[in-house]
Specification:
There is one protein chain. By secondary structure, the protein is an alpha/beta fold. It is 30% helix and 27% strand. The chain is built from 14 helices and 24 strands. The N and C termini lie close together (9 Å). The protein binds ligand EPZ. The site of ligand EPZ has 23 residues, from α1, α5, α6 and α12.
Length: 431
């Protein structure tokens, strides 16, 4: 298994191209199940999770074709065309769903288009139990009959789904996306209240509108959908990845130097950019993205709380913690979205960080320096936080289990090395 080797202490200088958002691309790909037409997605990132979902969609009968590349901001993304002329199989098997929880996003579209779906129940994962009750309750409110049998969700709506008013008791990105897709083909009006407002949800809604769906309130917490008999294909550019951009912004702030994030959209990242400013880096919007600069001066401690959008994203919590380990003073980081998203803490401690956990909060007291160590993490964002720590640690850091990084960061080591970081991928035999 590959590893990433980093020798810390090099400032970063240069430009990092930001790719299309993984968490927008995944629901957008499942939206192809809603139409007989061809959905062409441009600015698609090249990631393991995208391949996993492509395999799942193929076995539902979707014809997938790579249509080359197209430039988008600072990045040249891939173009993928998906055509679900006929849905040949409505079962999403355990073997594929267990590889990636986002597979649950086929449930709403399959049910709405084919009238039935059998999807393996995703299990818990490293960051929490992550139930799917909100997805299931919402679909039941749209008239689906749902049974849980032998580890599978068995859902049926032989006469189609019908619109309803759904008030989510708490904000869920995935449940909003599943219900939004299902509602586009349900009879009559559906209202989704207390819906997630994440830019990835908005990107999906914009694409669905281009496919002919009638959706009001896009970007707000109340979505009003008038169901249609059918949707058509379209071409859609996937929104740039605000989490990838935020991760590299924090890399520049922790390592020092000056990095332009080409293609990043500052208006989607207010909360994260504000925290990076408070921590002592300069953030300047540019014509093509965002410039992050920290030339002199220490990092400063600051408090952070994760929240649904527009709050500070949970997907940047591990990375900001890595940054604050070497900041002057103390920082309190509170995780409110997932109950177990501090798996990076013991590994950061092994690199010399001073972090104490108190329930959902981590108290980080800045230390003058971190030291390199062999480390590993159990999820994508925790892994990348160790890479960030490695960029400033004295000596060598070897990050194991690189497959986590490959799920969500395209050419991570190349992008950082191009800005002067001493970082390389080591094949298992050579490590
Ligand atoms: C999405 O997951 C993202 N994944 C996650 O990114 C992200 O961390 C998360 O949203 C929060 O922003 C994708 O978009 C593919 P949720 P999702 O439903 O949709 C609870 C990454 O690193 N909940 O908004 O699964 C849940 O347990 C990943 O890229 C229920 O209780 O997240 C959690 O505590 C990791 N019942 C909270 O809601 C439900 O039915 C928010 O989860 C659904 C969720």
């Amino acid at each position: 298994m590959d590893k990433i080797r980093i020798r810390g202490g090099k400032p970063l200088r240069g430009t990092i191209p930001i790719g299309g958002a993984k968490n927008a691309a995944l629901p957008l790909m499942t939206a192809s199940l809603l139409t007989e037409g061809t959905l062409t997605l441009a600015n698609l990132p090249h990631l393991a999770d995208i391949t996993t979902l492509a395999n799942l969609l193929a076995q539902h009968g979707v014809d997938l074709r790579m249509d080359g590349h197209s430039p988008n901001g600072g990045h040249t993304g891939r173009v993928l065309s998906l055509t679900a002329k006929r849905i040949s199989n409505t079962t999403a098997p355990y073997d594929l769903v267990r590889k990636m929880r986002a597979s649950i996003l086929v449930l709403g579209p399959l049910l709405a288009r084919a009238g039935k779906a059998r999807v393996s129940l995703p299990g818990g994962c490293a960051i929490g139990t992550r139930p799917v009750d909100l997805h299931l309750k919402g679909l039941q409110q749209l008239g689906a009959r749902i049974e849980l049998k032998e580890g599978y969700i068995d859902a049926e709506a032989p006469n189609g789904l019908s619109g309803a008013e759904i008030v989510f008791p708490s904000v869920s990105v995935g449940a909003t996306e599943n219900l939004l897709m299902a509602a586009t083909l349900a009879g009559g009006e559906t209202v989704l209240a207390n819906a997630a407002r994440e830019p990835e949800v908005t990107d999906l809604a914009v694409c669905l509108q281009a496919m002919g769906a009638r959706i009001e309130g896009v970007g707000s917490d109340t979505l009003r959908i008038q169901g249609a008999r059918s949707l058509s294909g379209t071409r859609h550019d996937i929104v740039p990845d605000r989490i990838e951009a935020g991760t590299y912004a924090m890399a520049a702030a922790i390592a020092g130097g000056e990095v332009e994030l080409a293609g990043a959209r500052p208006e989607l990242m207010h909360a994260a950019l504000e925290i990076i400013r408070q921590a002592g880096a300069t953030v300047t919007p540019t014509k093509s993205g965002i410039m992050i600069r920290r030339i002199a001066g220490a990092l400063r401690g600051t408090d952070v709380m994760t929240e649904p959008f527009p709050g500070f994203p949970t997907d940047l919590q591990a990375q900001i913690m890595a940054l604050l380990t070497t900041a002057e003073g103390a920082s309190m980081i509170t995780e409110t979205i997932f109950e177990n998203r501090f798996m990076h803490v013991p590994e950061l401690r092994r690199m010399g960080a001073n972090i104490n956990l108190h329930g959902a909060s981590a108290m980080v007291r800045g230390v003058p320096r971190l030291t390199g160590a062999p480390v590993m993490a159990t999820d994508l964002r925790a892994s990348v936080s160790l890479v960030l720590a490695g960029l400033v640690a004295e000596g060598e850091t070897l990050v194991n289990r690189v497959y986590h990084l490959d799920r969500g960061y395209e050419r991570l080591e190349e992008k950082l090395a191009a800005c002067g970081a001493e970082i390389e991928r080591v094949k298992e035999a050579a490590a």
